[in-house]
Write a structure and sequence with these properties.
Largest sheet: 9 strands, mixed
Strand order of the largest sheet: 2-1-11-10-12-13-14-15-16
Structural class: alpha/beta
Helix content: 25-40%
Radius of gyration: 23 Å
Number of helices: 18
Distance between the termini: 38 Å
Strand content: 15-25%
């Protein structure tokens, strides 16, 4: 950090009561961290999905069974890759924690992947064992013969429920709701049979080091070939402990409280939140499909969470839902926002509806993910807060020189949560991590005089109009305040006269809203060259599974 940036951040952390540095080496592995939780919170509820809850003791027992099967029956060796492809179910934690306990590397796999995307990830990672939920197994069945995967375990939605509930729910999902497309995977094993086999052959505890790889978390699929970010045990432990120190500002009692998790746990944001929940003895209530808004609303009503993990598009959708607005939010203490920029309008509306302020954070797959966040005792809407402990920040110009306060440039991060690199891609790693360990995020940011960070935009999303830099987030933040606008996205399109022109894609709640009305509204708050030349109305905007708007797809 430059002296002025470092001084400003350090002063603000001290003011907020957040330690500048913490001991991130107190656990040798993420396994040691969650095994401590198993011993400490044995009778507490650990996780729930589809109406069934596992205690910490049950999660301990079942994950140990899966670890035993991997070591003895599956014939895997330490460091082999295990892919998990399922939505938010309690089976995810059983399989994931079991794989980590056995010394394997977890490869989180998006259930919505196309055949091309899935084949690339399984092959690139060298996956030997895959665990897949039956509802999405059709794609895997088509791809597996072209990969090196040796064993496949299939789980149905209610496999860990007690009988007869298990049989009834699985029957309804498969035969009545017809949510399981037909598939055929020769030699596929059932999860419950695997767990029984693992119970007969107890797993051997593995000595793990902080430098050992824990996960291959794939990223960059929307901007090119997806790359596997190598997250070590030390990376994951550090980010959980950094988050823990940061959350002290929210004064939330962890043990026995519920964290409602609608965001997919195969995404690093939700994954680390689930590890943090284990650390503090909280109960994670999983919502299998965040796009099913009634199920999110019902989960809110059933669990009355103390902490909710969301993002801008989900906040907007929930606040527009009449049933959600009628709920009792008196137990909601913390609302986290990440994954995409939080607009002022969405944040203000959420607070108006729930009475809870949204704390926006910032992170990336490559940083496990948390870099910064808004503390409970100092939320500044429109910023990404201050760095979590033991995290260094630099803002650099195009020549790599550190900048001072209020000067926008590329945000660079150094800390124990930064990945080891991209799997089998040393050139790609060298492009983003320099010799001193600084990771270049590709985001344009600045550090305010008070030490808070603000994202200006993605470097590649920046629009250049007649030589002037225009940042889509600014335009979207202005327009989304219009009462007839549900959501919007700005992109640059080629222009003979200005190099690039701004096109605004808009989802409107009032069909009477016109292109001219949009431009007139934006002209009130933006200088002329920032007003879009064209406006396109759409029924919905393309998004990732996490809900992040795909500007690239709109440009294409």
């Amino acid at each position: 950090m430059t002296d002025t940036v470092s001084t400003a951040i350090t002063a603000q952390l001290e003011k907020l009561g957040i330690p500048a540095r913490i001991d991130t080496d107190s656990y040798p592995s993420i396994v040691a961290l969650f095994e401590e939780a198993f011993a400490t919170y044995r009778l507490e509820a650990a996780c729930t999905s589809v109406g069934h809850t596992l205690s910490y003791a049950e999660l301990d027992r079942l994950s140990a069974h899966f670890a035993g099967w991997l070591q003895h029956d599956a014939g895997l060796e330490r460091g082999d890759r295990v892919a998990i492809q399922m939505p938010n179910l309690i089976q995810y934690l059983v399989v994931c924690l079991g794989a980590l306990r056995a010394g394997m590397v977890v490869v989180n796999t998006n259930p919505l992947y196309t055949e091309r995307e899935l084949e690339h990830q399984l092959t690139d990672a060298g996956v030997r064992v895959m665990v897949v939920q039956a509802n999405v197994a059709q794609t895997a069945a088509a791809v597996l013969p072209r990969t090196g995967v040796e064993k496949v375990v299939v789980t149905e939605i209610a496999d860990l429920h007690p009988q007869p509930k298990r049989m009834l729910i699985n029957f309804l999902v498969k035969y009545v709701k017809k949510m399981v497309p037909p598939f055929h995977i020769p030699g596929a094993l059932k999860l419950n049979n695997v767990l029984k086999a693992g119970a007969a052959t107890p797993y051997q505890a593995v000595t793990l080091a902080r430098t050992d790889m824990a996960m291959l978390q794939y990223t960059g699929g929307t901007t090119g070939v997806a790359k596997g970010g190598m997250l070590t045990h030390g990376n994951l432990v550090a980010n959980v402990l950094q988050s823990d120190a940061f959350f002290a500002t929210h004064n939330m009692e962890g043990r026995g409280q519920t964290i409602l998790q609608p965001l997919p746990v195969y995404h690093i944001y939700a994954f680390t939140a689930s590890m943090y929940a284990l650390r503090i003895g909280a109960h994670t209530a999983f919502v299998p499909n965040p796009r099913d808004l009634p199920s999110v609303v019902k989960a809110f009503a059933d669990f009355r969470p103390a902490l909710f993990c969301g993002l801008n598009t989900l906040f907007v959708a929930l606040c527009n839902n009449e049933a959600f607005r009628a709920l009792d939010f008196s137990n909601l203490q913390v609302t986290l926002s990440g994954g995409m920029a939080l607009t002022h309008d969405a944040a203000n509306r959420w607070t108006e509806v729930t009475g809870c302020i949204v704390s926006e954070g910032y992170g990336l797959t490559e940083t496990s993910p948390t870099v910064s966040g808004n503390p409970g005792n100092g939320v500044q809407i429109g910023t990404i807060g201050v760095p979590v402990p033991s995290t260094e920040i630099q803002i650099r110009d195009d020549d790599g020189n550190p900048l001072g306060l209020d000067e926008p440039g590329e945000l660079c991060v150094r800390g124990p949560q930064v990945m080891a690199g991209y799997w089998q891609r040393p050139e790609a790693t060298a492009e983003v991590i320099d010799g001193d360990g600084w990771f270049a995020t590709g985001d344009i940011a600045l550090v305010q005089p008070d030490g808070y960070l603000r994202i200006v935009d993605r470097k590649k999303d920046m629009i250049v109009v007649s030589g002037f830099n225009v940042y889509p987030n600014e335009l979207e933040d202005v327009l989304v305040a219009h009462p007839d606008v549900v959501e919007c996205a700005a992109v640059g399109i080629p222009s003979e006269s200005t190099g690039e022109a701004i096109r605004m894609f808009v989802v409107r709640s009032n069909p009477a809203l016109t292109e001219d009305a949009v431009r007139d509204f934006m002209r009130e708050g933006l200088t002329g060259y920032k007003v879009p030349k064209s406006v396109v109305f759409k029924d919905e905007l393309p998004k990732t599974a996490v809900g992040k708007i795909l500007r690239r797809e709109l440009r294409d």
